[in-house]
Amino acid sequence: MKFARIHGAPGFNTITDKYLAKNNLSAERRRMYIESWKKLRAREVDIIIGAHPGQCKTFEKQASRGDGPNPFIVLEGWPAFLDGLQKKFRETFPEIEF
């Protein structure tokens, strides 16, 4: 059985200081976002479906479909996707440790 997952909000626009202040939200939302990575890493994922086609090269994968292996099945893709999010988070919020 194959498992597909979509990460519907991988961006950080809803956890910036400006957004949190404008919407009267606690900075604890950042900690919740970080904690979600632990839960997501524990999931078995064979197929990643990005919220936007560029995130996971959806169109490129579709174009490369043929008689060979299914290009959407990328077993190492999920940890790499999460690693990329964490790297971007560190660059965006260098003052926050996790």
Rg (C-alpha, Å) = 16 Å
Q: What letter string, H or E per element, gives the SSE order?
A: EHHEHH
**Structural classification:** mainly alpha
Share of helical residues: 40-55%
Shape: elongated
The overall strand count is 2
Q: What is the mean predicted local confidence, pLDDT?
A: 86
Strand residue content: 5-15%
Could you tell me how far the N terminus lies from the C terminus, measured between alpha carbons in angstroms?
33 Å
Main sheet specs: 2 strands, parallel
Number of helices: 4
Kindly report the spatial arrangement of strands forming the biggest sheet: 1-2
Provide the number of structural domains. 1
Q: Could you characterize what this model shows?
A:
Strands 1-2 form a two-stranded parallel ribbon. 7% of the residues are buried. The chain is 43% helix and 8% strand. It is mostly helical and 98 residues long. The protein has one domain. It is built from four helices and two strands.
How are the SSEs ordered, and which strands pair?
Elements (H helix, E strand, L loop, with lengths): L3 E4 L9 H6 L5 H14 L5 E4 L7 H6 L13 H16 L6
Helix pairs in contact: 2-4
Essential attributes:
single chain; 98 residues; mainly alpha; two-stranded parallel sheet; 4 helices; 43% helix
Provide a concise account of the structure shown.
The protein is 43% helix and 8% strand. The chain has 4 helices and 2 strands; from the N terminus they run βααβαα. Strands 1-2 form a two-stranded parallel ribbon.
